[in-house]
Amino acid sequence: MPTAILADRAIIDVSGPDAEHFLQNILTLDLDALGKSEARPGALLAPQGKIMFDFLVSRSTDNTLRLECRADIADDFVRRLMLYRLRAKADISKQDQPHIAVTWQDDSAISHSDSTVRDSRFQQPVFRHYGTAPTPSASEADWHAFRIDNGVAESGPDYALSDAFPHDVLLDQMGGIGFKKGCFIGQEVVSRMQHRGTARRRVLLVSAASGLPAPGTELKADGKVLGTLGSVDGSNGLAIARIDRVKAALDAGSAITAGDVTVALAIPAWASFTYPEATSAEDA
């Protein structure tokens, strides 16, 4: 049961009588579906539909929602939430030096509580600990290797904020978008992509016979760019790629490369999307 301390994460608490209603109206996920002992992914979007901030949300108490995000974006996230709060009776604050840890692969010794919640992005048992946590037995690198193996992308190592739609990073596949809850910021763009089936960029698993090159390396086939390599752990990694172009390369039997390394691409086993039946003639 590996446990790692996550030093690069922060917690923002949103509390008060209007806290849930306030967040429900601006964030992508449906908070009505958020269980007491789970953490769900979500995002705050720009009006154009791209991700400005990504996070995990869980319930700290009945009237407090806990937003876990990257530490380096936390202050900007707080300021953006304050901007949208208007007259809502909601207090927004960043915790000082929060203790955040993650445990994976086994739930036999895990006790559910307000401070230990299951990370719903994973089919295998994964738990986030806020406050008291089991003794660390693994590194952050071990955790990211597990995350990569499971096809779970995060901003920073896998994509830049303001450069990806929720569908690109599979939020639609992991309960991070409430398609039936009504309006939220950027909802019109996201709903149009969903109903028209126009999402072409997707997170894919990358593997190679040797070590992969650095994150940010372009994936190519027959001279055409398919996508960009994200997180890397030795010969395994993640990429966000155009699945119509990947399908065309696979159909043609073309080699797909990252730099000088030949790679194989695969859809995460838990995801429900597929490669398109017909490839797109669009080159954009």
Explain what you see.
The chain is α+β, with helices and mostly antiparallel strands and 284 residues long. The protein is 17% helix and 32% strand. The protein has 5 helices and 15 strands. It has helices spanning 19-24, 74-85, 140-149, 187-196, 243-252; strands at residues 3-5, 9-15, 38-45, 51-61, 64-70, 91-94, 100-104, 116-119, 126-130, 201-208, 218-221, 224-233, 236-242, 256-258, 261-266. It has a 9-stranded mixed beta sheet with strand order 1-7-9-8-3-4-5-2-6, with helices on both faces. A hairpin with a 5-residue loop joins strand 3 (38-45) and strand 4. The chain is globular and about 60 Å long. The termini are far apart. 39% of the residues are buried. Mean pLDDT is 94; it is low at 280-284.
Order of helices and strands: EEHEEEHEEEEHHEEEEHEE
CA-atom Rg in angstroms = 19 Å
Low-confidence stretches: 280-284
Q: Helix content range of the residues, please? A: 10-25%
Shape: globular
User: In angstroms, what separates the terminal alpha carbons?
Assistant: 45 Å
Q: Residue-averaged pLDDT, rounded? A: 94
Strand content: 25-35%
Give me the secondary-structure category: alpha+beta
Strand arrangement in the largest pleated sheet: 1-7-9-8-3-4-5-2-6
Number of strands: 15
The total count of helices amounts to 5
User: Mind describing the biggest β-sheet?
Assistant: 9 strands, mixed
Blueprint (SSEs and pairs):
Elements: E1 3-5, E2 9-15, H1 19-24, E3 38-45, E4 51-61, E5 64-70, H2 74-85, E6 91-94, E7 100-104, E8 116-119, E9 126-130, H3 140-149, H4 187-196, E10 201-208, E11 218-221, E12 224-233, E13 236-242, H5 243-252, E14 256-258, E15 261-266
Parallel strand pairs: 3-8
Antiparallel strand pairs: 1-7, 2-5, 2-6, 3-4, 4-5, 7-9, 8-9, 10-13, 10-15, 11-12, 11-14, 12-13, 14-15
